[in-house]
Specification:
The chain has 91 residues and is an alpha+beta fold. The chain has 3 helices and 4 strands; from the N terminus they run αββαβαβ. Helices cover 44% and strands 16% of the residues.
């Protein structure tokens, strides 16, 4: 019969903790890789007042004269400001 001391129990718990930590890190990595990159998000950008609208925003959809559809990062690079109604797609 082998008698395990308190250090052996702590060691076993640490091994369980490390395994759980690795599983959690792998899960976060999978979650991060499954989300499309924010640079791919398209937005409406009003070139006259620099407002940025989500694609589902009513004001972006009714804007036909000065709005263009561009990537989110490009809209904010041009000095875009988030719409007060939809919030735009902030960085």
């Amino acid at each position: 019969m082998i008698i395990l001391g308190p250090f052996a129990i702590v060691h076993i718990r640490m091994l369980h903790y490390r395994r759980t930590q690795k599983i959690f890190i792998l899960w976060l990595l999978f979650l991060f890789l499954s989300i499309p990159l924010a640079a791919d998000v398209q937005v409406y950008f009003n070139v006259s007042n620099n407002k940025v609208h989500k694609m589902s925003c009513h004001w972006g959809q009714v804007c036909t004269r000065n709005c263009i559809v561009i990537p989110r990062t490009e809209a904010y690079r041009r000095g875009g400001v988030a719409c007060k109604v939809c919030g735009g797609v902030s960085l």
